[in-house]
């Protein structure tokens, strides 16, 4: 699925900024921060246009937040777009990358009567394979 198809499927107007944000995330293959997305976005979109487009994509559930901690948030395409099941994420404390761990499914735990989960997140923190090799080199 390409950015234009994603926007069409969500009944959103096609704009260069929206398409660009989706393209950058798709091409990365890993979740990115707002700054990383903005830095990789080609074109001259002002801050207001970027943030409005970003907010629209979040509200439309095209992209979703991965909250690593109170100072670091990364974004990825929503699982409804990628057809992935809920999964864990790995945060490398050295290079600050976030990777999807699709081989580790996340299931919502049973909740007491009257409770309803809207989201379940698992973030595993440590060193990625590349940083682990660099430390032992």
TrEMBL record:
Keywords: Metal-binding, Zinc. Pfam families: FUR. Binds 1 zinc ion per subunit. Zn(2+) binds at residues 92, 95, 128, 131. Its cofactor is Zn(2+). This is Transcriptional repressor. It comes from the Bacteria. GO terms for biological process: negative regulation of DNA-templated transcription; regulation of secondary metabolite biosynthetic process. GO terms for molecular function: DNA-binding transcription factor activity; transcription cis-regulatory region binding; zinc ion binding.
């Amino acid at each position: 699925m390409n950015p234009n198809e994603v926007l069409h499927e969500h009944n959103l107007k096609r704009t260069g900024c929206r398409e660009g944000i989706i393209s950058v995330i798709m091409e990365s293959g890993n979740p990115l921060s707002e700054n990383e997305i903005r830095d990789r976005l080609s074109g001259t979109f002002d801050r207001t246009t970027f943030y409005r487009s970003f907010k629209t994509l979040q509200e439309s559930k095209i992209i979703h937040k991965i909250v690593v901690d109170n100072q670091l948030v990364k974004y990825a395409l929503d699982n409804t777009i990628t057809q992935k099941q809920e999964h864990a994420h790995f945060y490398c404390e050295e290079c600050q990358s976030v990777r999807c761990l699709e081989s580790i499914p996340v299931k919502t735990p049973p909740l007491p009567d009257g409770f309803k989960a809207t989201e379940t997140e698992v973030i595993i923190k440590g060193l990625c394979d590349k940083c682990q090799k660099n430390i032992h080199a």
